[in-house]
Design a protein that fits this description.
3 helices, alpha+beta, flat
Length: 169
């Protein structure tokens, strides 16, 4: 009886550990329902038709209205994550739709994960004046700076001195 119970517990632990190996897929960004951004036709579509068919873009190119072109980006990515590991981007799709001044589509460009570039951040720190104190320097740094004239060796008649108001008489 106990051997069957041990086998069942081991089997349950094995199934539980194997279920942790299944990846969790998450889709982020624009998710096309019926029409896809890649199906936009540069010869016939306008801003109004793209907006009606695809909805709002993920990102618009700029807020400056003096430019001759306006670009809308529809971005989508799929991330894969295992139980405790860092998420990994499995697929990325970016569609850039360029409009001219009149609002007509001039170009549709598609970018994938292979078109991405890694950005190397510079981890420099701004130097500050002075020096950094260690924990011990912060704790014991004020020992020599306590004013000795207020510890009892000064004038006895000063209110607030030794013995309280009136000099401790």
């Amino acid at each position: 009886m106990t051997s069957n119970l041990i086998k069942a517990a081991c089997f349950g632990a094995l199934m539980l550990s194997l279920s942790a190996c299944n990846p969790i897929l998450r889709t982020h960004g624009y998710v096309p329902t019926e029409a896809k951004p890649q199906e936009v036709n540069p010869e016939t579509d306008t801003k109004a038709s793209v907006l009606a068919r695809l909805g709002n873009p993920s990102v618009k190119s700029t807020f400056d209205e003096d430019l001759d072109e306006d670009v809308w980006f529809y971005m989508n990515s799929v991330r894969q994550r295992y139980a405790y590991l860092r998420p990994k981007i499995e697929d990325r799709n970016i569609t850039a739709i360029t409009f001219n001044v009149d609002g007509n589509v001039t170009k549709v460009a598609e970018y994938g994960i292979e078109d991405g570039q890694y950005v190397d951040y510079v981890n420099r720190k701004t130097p500050t004046r002075g020096r950094e104190l260690s924990v011990l320097e912060q704790i014991f740094g004020t020992i020599g700076r306590i004013p000795t004239d207020r510890l009892g060796g000064g004038n006895q008649d000063v209110p607030g001195g030794p013995g309280g108001p009136g000099g401790g008489r």
